[in-house]
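Thread: IS5/IS1182 family transposase, structure

OP (GT): Posting the sequence first so everyone is looking at the same thing. Length is 252 residues per the record. Can we get the structure tokens written out before standup tomorrow? I want them in the notebook alongside the other entries.
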Amino acid sequence: MNQDCFWLTGEQFARIEPHLPTDTRGKPRVDDRRVISGIVHVLKSGGRWVDAPVCYGPRKTLYNRFVRWAEKGIWINLCHTLADAGGPPAHVLIDSSAVKAHRSASGGKGGKKSQAIGRSRGGRTTKIHALTDVECRPLAFLLTGGNVAVCKAGAELLGQLSDCRNLHADKGYDSNAIRRQVEATGAMPNIPPKTNRHWKNCFSPTLYWDRNAIERMFCRLKDFRRIATRYDRHATNFLAAVCIAATVSYWL
């Protein structure tokens, strides 16, 4: 076995195996553990699918499994299922991080907007918006173009917010709409007020101290080279890659 290749341990695979599809028809699937390990290896190394090591089997099988399960939402559901198993966290953090889109990411159907690519100061970028707990573990993701304001995307992402006591965010999320949306769930928004606010909202710097956990989560995800730079043409595939990286890094 090549030491440079990634392999899921028996314990890790045992955690995800119950959540994999079982309604397959026709020819039985190729060994799930080997194929999923190969997919993770490609995401970590940043290489092309055709350059995957032969120890994972046919490269086309790796790519087809990744894309087909991405279209069915299996990778996203796997990440959410493992995250939900831990119960709702008391404190939730929200933030976003931009990644550059490689030229190979161009040309998706519907144009750049529908494929979550936008032009910002950093060029053609995609923003990954996330919810995490204070232990850096991701709870939910959303993709937008790099030019989309965080408060606009945040309102959509907060629709996935589970029960919690506090939501911690930076000044970019300091809007009346965001605050009302968070309070409607029964949580307290702990967001530093913008300087142009006449009335300074309740804010706890002590609780806010742990907000760097979400920054550390993004740094760890970007250790996967196909997350640090977007090569996927379709947003569905890139979001699936993000969920796989999050699952392997934090939930296994």
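GT: Both are above now. Quick notes for whoever picks this up: The domain at 89-235 is CATH 3.30.420 (Nucleotidyltransferase; domain 5). The longest strand covers residues 91-101.
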